[in-house]
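Chapter summary example: a protein plus nicotinamide-adenine-dinucleotide.
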Amino acid sequence: MSDAPVIHHFIHGAAVESSSGDYFDSLDPATGSVVARVAAGNAQDVDAAVHDARSAAGSWADVTPVQRAHVLFRIAAALRAEAEPLALAETLDNGKPLSQARSDVESSARYFEYYAGAVDKLQAETIPMGPDYLSYTRFEPYGVTAQVIPWNAPLQQAARGFAPALAAGNTIVAKPAEDTSLTCVRLAEIASRCGLPDGVLNVVTGLGEVTGDALVRHPEVDKIAFTGSLPTGQLVMKAAADRVVPVTLELGGKSPNIVFADADLDSAAAGAIRAITLNAGQICSAGSRLLVHRSVHDEVVQRLVALSARVTVGPGVRDPDMGPLTTEDQWRRVRGYLDLALEEGTSFASGGKVPTDSALRGGWFVEPTIVVGVASQMRIAQEEIFGPVLCVIPFDDDAEAVQIANDTDFGLVAGIWTTSLSRAHRVAAQIKAGQVFVNEYFAGGVETPFGGYKRSGIGREKGLEGLRQYLQVKSVTVRI
Ligand code: NAD
């Protein structure tokens, strides 16, 4: 019998045991050891949570915006006060280096702070209809929102959905990824201690095809926010279509990071390495395709090889540059893509293997890998690998750079490195992606709207756009 902590559901402000009595193991990706035993939710657990969220919906919607803001500000402060234990739990559960987990806790606090500050400034409109009418709009919450969360940034992605949903007056039933449930449940406990009424934020842990499926199909859910892979997103959208429920989808990416010949090559190379090694490349917005002008291709690759040799790899608790992949499945998948890269005729300028260091043998590590000789139509340049594997593709002119950048089913983000202002703005406008970074990959923050073009998703999170996704507009017209 394992002595690992036991994670229950969080329903109506309290820990609730799995109704079936079933629990599963959540593993430390750096060692494979058990971090926690997690409740395996079923349709009955989901039903209890959704009914609770439904009961709480009316009264939470009636809480004044400023009072809702006070609760959210307290949650932000509590997250900061508990940053160290939260970061450690995230590192053990997800594998990411401690400093990246700390940064995720800070971003989570920022989401609560940002939407707390915004919610009492949301003014609607009056509509000019002449002297005989008064016409105006109101923002109203949807009611019960279902939030399905992936494993790559569990706390931050929970906060990204919870904060605007709560600020707007909705209630929540969340389903964290089965591999990383710890910090999502912890966040719900913190929110409850900060004065969030019971039933407003519930978490049901469990497997996607059981708990997640029951949640997105539940007849009392009024809006679905899903972050995860494209195939699951398609299933969720079909479930939403059956009931005509609005859905926000944040899906995958294969984002281009474009280095023009006039760029500061040192900054561009450093930015490119960070764009693919942060969180071991398991970021939907990772810069996984590096498009380099042919005249500087070899110089850039030389820099990438030198920089990747300096990337430290190890257990997240030792705070290296890069931790393990979060799940064994993902580790196998990434290694499959490394094999495919060779089969497709490319070569590794660096990396391409599992580290040989015996201290890393128990975990799901791979080396940061630079793949050269890649052509845009290859599978490794088209499919989301979700690991530290950078595909370098040369281009000859701006038009070709834009054509290759857009030559993907995805459209989440793009990076541009250039010293020409005109080129930066011209190319930014031509890129089919929801967010463009110029001269700093991952530029932006909780304030900047984020979401996909094409198959990267529907709707926007972050910024004021993120708040609008949780509000419906009603117009009222009065004959005077
Ligand atoms: P996933 O689709 O396998 O799982 C995501 C979540 O959906 C998990 O909680 C899972 O349990 C749940 N789920 C699985 N099957 C379900 C079903 N049938 N019904 C309802 N829920 C179900 O994705 P993942 O592997 O956890 O995450 C990686 C993917 O997420 C990548 O493609 C990545 O790009 C994407 N992602 C996107 C963003 C973004 O903001 N665009 C952010 C992070 C991750």
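Key point: The two ends are 73 Å apart (CA to CA).
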